[in-house]
Amino acid sequence: AQYPETRLAELINCLREFYFDRDPDAFKCVIEVYYFGEVHMKKGICPICFKSEMDFWKVDLKFLDDCCKSHLSEKREELEEIARRVQLILDDLGVDSAEGGWRRCQKCVWKFLEKPESSCPARVVAVLSFLLILVSSVVMCMGTIPELQVVDAEGNRVEHPTLENVETACIGWFTLEYLLRLFSSPNKLHFALSFMNIVDVLAILPFYVSLTLTHLGARMMELTNVQQAVQALRIMRIARIFKLARHSSGLQTLTYALKRSFKELGLLLMYLAVGIFVFSALGYTMEQSHPETLFKSIPQSFWWAIITMTTVGYGDIYPKTTLGKLNAAISFLCGVIAIALPIHPIINNFVRYYNKQRVLETAAKHELELMELNSISTGDGKPGGSRSDLDTLPPEPAGKEAPSWGSRLKLSHSDTFIPLLTEEKHHRTRLQSCK
């Protein structure tokens, strides 16, 4: 036999007839190794199931084509991501009765704040936090309306006291929420360095810094630098709008898609930079023949090239000669093409990662449901909730190590595999008996 280690090669000298309860579509692909020396996986076949079929027929993975290996690797990464998410959920939700009251309290607070779907009160708190973010953002905008401002004792226009009180209440809520989440976090360092928590700090820090500088006294506030610092810190309040990303998986996916699209964004900036330099130089040269030209220098022409290629067209700088207008038309068309080319891959990245996020979330919930049903079937009568319950497995035979929840994650996919009729040892006995 050309491949003596495969299962079919073991049957070459056997005269009996065997029936294997396996997937026929997968077998049609596996048997190609005997004809072509490689295996191609057809569309519609689960890569994980196909790998199981190759293992059953004892065909080495090295015979699988490279394009199919990449698909298999992608599915393996998805399973690992699902396992990681399930592990995180178990770590967050698991409360061991043997732990102290302080640790149990931390886990309960963390679950309450980080998992809105865990209970109705947690969902109410999440909605309230979302509404307060919107209210604080609206108050920040309304505070700049002259009709809603008042004049203080020094004759300066300041925000209305009512708006300040509303903002103070919102900041108080954000501060309490951040401190509770920091207190209950399993990993304080990772919590403090995560992007969303840095945004939370930037959203509340300007309020306290401005409040401190304001109450240092009149002499301190008379300094121009201090006043400018206070104004700059108040502008930083716009960072609180990014807190909405905590409550929106779509915004989180958009951020991740942009991170993964650095190459496309770099191409976009490169196209625009080249076009801006070329058309601004041409525009400056062509407009020098006009006595009332608005193109005073090439750097000043950069602004005209930017607003033209991005189709903004403010009209503060515009060409007056025929050649200059022709140059403007060409730069407009080139700008549309340069922007459109990299946008499509960026949109595809967003759609792909958004759909993948939805699939992973659904798969993780499905795994938890299977583990919950497994915990109920063991007879403990508890519908999950603690990690010890979720990790409960039927007793294993002596000498065998009980599988962890991670191995059970793989077993939960067993409904997608074609079951074996016999065990490996029993099958070898049958092969020996037919020789």
Q: Main β-sheet, in a few words?
A: 2 strands, antiparallel
> Which CATH architecture of the largest domain is right?
Up-down Bundle
Strand content: under 5%
DSSP helical segment count: 19
CATH topology category name of the largest domain: Four Helix Bundle (Hemerythrin (Met), subunit A)
Structural class: mainly alpha
Q: Can you identify the CATH superfamily of the largest domain?
A: Voltage-gated potassium channels. Chain C
Strand order of the largest sheet: 1-2
Radius of gyration: 33 Å
| Amount of helix | 55-70%
Q: Mean pLDDT, rounded to whole units? A: 77
Stretches where pLDDT falls below 50 for ≥5 residues?
A: 381-433
CATH hierarchy class name of the largest domain: Mainly Alpha
Walk me through the structure.
Helix 5 crosses helix 16. The chain is flat, with a radius of gyration of 33 Å. The model is unreliable at 381-433 (pLDDT under 50). It has helices at residues 7-10, 24-30, 33-36, 47-56, 66-93, 101-114, 120-142, 161-184, 188-193, 195-214, 218-221, 224-235, 249-259, 262-287, 298-309, 322-377, 387-390, 405-411, 424-433, and strands at residues 149-151, 157-159. It is mostly helical and 435 residues long. 65% of the residues lie in helices and 1% in strands. The longest helix has 56 residues, at 322-377. It folds into 3 domains: 7-90, Potassium Channel Kv1.1, Chain A (2-Layer Sandwich); 108-247, Four Helix Bundle (Hemerythrin (Met), subunit A) (Up-down Bundle), CATH 1.20.120.350; 262-353, Helix Hairpins (Orthogonal Bundle).
